[in-house]
Amino acid sequence: MQKQRRVFIIKTIKYLVAIALILFAILPFFWIIATSFNAAKSLLGANLIPKALTANNYRDLLHNPSLSFGSWMLNSFKVSAISVAFIVFLTCLSAYALSRFRFAGKRGVMMGIMIMNIFPGILAMVAIYVMMQQFGTYLPFLGLNTHGGLICVYVAGSMSVNVLMVKSYIDSISPELDESALIEGATYWQVFWKILFPVIKPMVITIAILAFMSTYGDFVVANLLLKGNDKVTVMVGIYQFTQQRFDTNWGIVTAGTILAAIPVVILFFVSQKYILNGLMMGAVKE
Asked: Residue 59 falls within a domain, yes or no?
């Protein structure tokens, strides 16, 4: 009897802790939603369940000429889409080369990629700013306050981890498939595109989805490189709006946050099966 009671107490404590953690995670989200539909401009003056729901914050957000929210969203989608395209293309080719070819300096390249994963990206912020400033002197489309420069930083920053993931998965595929195709007269590109790529496609989809989420939701790098109101992404634009006035309208800010998060939330729920399958397949050796 005491054993059953002890088990019951332990389970109860576990459930209470789990419920507390879940509430701690979701309450801020519901608070932001409530604030976006509340007429009060302050976070402290908002209620979790607003007494009178209003869509004025969303209307002001979309029709306020000083905000350019639609332009910020388009900038985010453009930068993320182009970054993902380059990340996927370069990652696949780099991983294929590192997995299947032997060349001078291969070991050094692999060591460099692994070392890059050790240091946090925040340490490179000053160097990135100076590099983009110098690039802008000779290549204006890759300098500061340009989408080209931001895309280059995103692509370079995402290559290391992604290349290792795809290379590890290609290593698990028998090289005999490549050799048989080459003997039949196929080129290296045909081997990659027609034999290897269909097999690694789940991993490629996973990388593309995760890369889109990370670039779309990035604030630190985008805030460092982009300054003009017509160039900033949605995350930077919302932040800059909070800095424009002393009495920030948090109703509009939270409305912008909700609208900006909707594409990522939809993408996550639609693609979570592909993300899980891609990561699981990358961890299994055949």
From this structure: no
Pick 118 or 83 by higher pLDDT: 83
Name the band, by pLDDT with cuts 50, 70 and 90, for residue 90: very high
Element (H, E) at 274: helix 250-283
- Decide if 61 is inside a domain: no
Q: Would you say residue 88 lies in a domain?
A: yes
For the stretch 82-85, contacts whose Cβ atoms lie closer than 8 Å and that sit 24 or more positions apart, written own/partner, are 82/147, 82/151, 83/151, 83/154, 83/155, 83/158, 83/211, 83/215, 84/208, 84/211, 84/212, 84/215
Clarify whether residues 258 and 141 are in a common domain: yes
Nearest to 237 by CA among 74, 60, 13: 74
Distance CA 264, CA 217 (A): 8
Query: Are residue 32 and residue 158 in the same domain, yes or no?
Result: no
pLDDT 10s digits, 22-56: 988 888 888 888 888 887 766 666 666 667 677 88
Contact 165, 117 (CB under 8 A): no
Residues 123, 252: one domain?
yes
pTM of the model: 0.85
Q: Domain residues for 80?
A: 67-283
Asked whether residue 146 falls in the same domain as residue 9, the answer is no
Number of structural domains (the chain) is 2
Q: What is the CA radius of gyration of the chain?
A: 24
**From CA 202, how far away is CA 171, in angstroms rounded?**
15
pLDDT at 221: 92
Residues 64-93 have a mean pLDDT of: 92
In a domain, 62, yes or no: no
Question: Residue 77: which residues within 8 A CB-CB, separation 6 or more?
Answer: 216, 263
